[in-house]
């Protein structure tokens, strides 16, 4: 099978590429930046904002792993179908279901995928364990982890589990027309995540509670305002649906999702 993976230079996409290559699939990795790729993986430099130029990437494709980037999802999906693709797996966001008014971009991608005529599966992860990379500098420099809403628990997910679900759903039949909510195995609070990194380091990490305003100012440096507001609402006043542990990772993979402490143990080098 030839599978096109977008976001191949990113956290999730990079791991999807690695899993598919290990499973012996033909992989075409698309990204704007160059990415370090396993041997045998074809790289096409491309921008999802310029789907007309993705023709080369899609030529001969059977399936597409799509993330939410670019302005015209319909044009991306048309190009994929023209190249031969029959299946698409979309990396959307839990917020598309729980707070569609803030998550218009993922909602637009979900709508386009449903209308694409391709066999589709939508993945809706909650917050990632790896969002604590935002603490790397302050932990390395001062053993401090700043975040708002320190005692509000959410079941964040390991990006490696998202990638494994994606790789499975791209290769297996039986997932067409499904929307999978992807969470970790249990809620943890930001304060508990800071402590788990401290435990992995063998040095305590001090949790520093931020105000909502401080957190918002930081988020606006790398997120559009609407997404920052949606994210703050989820972190500060999560709904029951956002607090809930989903059974979907276990349904697809036949094993429980990995905990935050497990992620911290595997990625401790970033904080040292
Ligand atoms: N972090 C969370 O808590 C969270 C929660 C729910 C959903 N999500 C979703 O998960 C996605 C993936 O997360 P991640 O951690 O893997 O992100 P990441 O590491 O930041 O990677 C994002 C990827 O998107 C690619 N990209 C961005 N704009 C592009 C464009 N115009 N054309 C082609 N590629 C483009 C980037 O590649 P180049 O820059 O090389 O092109 C990069 O490979 C996010 O984008 C978000 O929609 C995240």
Shape call: globular
The hetero molecules present are:
NADP nicotinamide-adenine-dinucleotide phosphate
Oligomer: single chain
* H/E topology pattern: EHEEHEHEHHEHEHEHEHHHHH
| Percentage of residues in DSSP E strands | 15-25%
Determine the structural class based on helices, strands and strand pairing. Answer: alpha/beta
Separation of the first and last Cα atoms: 40 Å
Biggest β-sheet: strands ordered side by side in the sheet:
3-2-1-4-5-6-8
How many individual helices? Answer: 13
The count of strands amounts to: 9
Low-pLDDT runs of 5+ residues are none
For the biggest sheet, the summary is: 7 strands, parallel
Radius of gyration: 19 Å
- Fraction of residues in helix: 40-55%
* Average residue-wise pLDDT: 97
Description of the molecule:
With 272 residues, the protein is of the alpha/beta class. Helices cover 42% and strands 17% of the residues. It has 13 helices and nine strands. It has helices at 11-22, 55-58, 73-83, 94-98, 104-115, 136-142, 159-171, 190-201, 212-219, 225-236, 240-243, 248-253, 260-266, and strands at 2-6, 26-31, 42-45, 63-67, 87-91, 119-125, 144-147, 178-182, 206-209. A seven-stranded parallel sheet has the order 3-2-1-4-5-6-8, sandwiched between helices. Helix 3 (73-83) links the parallel strand 4 (63-67) and strand 5 (87-91). Helix 9 (212-219) packs antiparallel against helix 10 (225-236). The protein is globular. NADP nicotinamide-adenine-dinucleotide phosphate binds next to helix 1.
In short:
This protein is α/β, with parallel strands linked by helices and 272 residues long. It has helices at 11-22, 55-58, 73-83, 94-98, 104-115, 136-142, 159-171, 190-201, 212-219, 225-236, 240-243, 248-253, 260-266, and strands spanning 2-6, 26-31, 42-45, 63-67, 87-91, 119-125, 144-147, 178-182, 206-209.
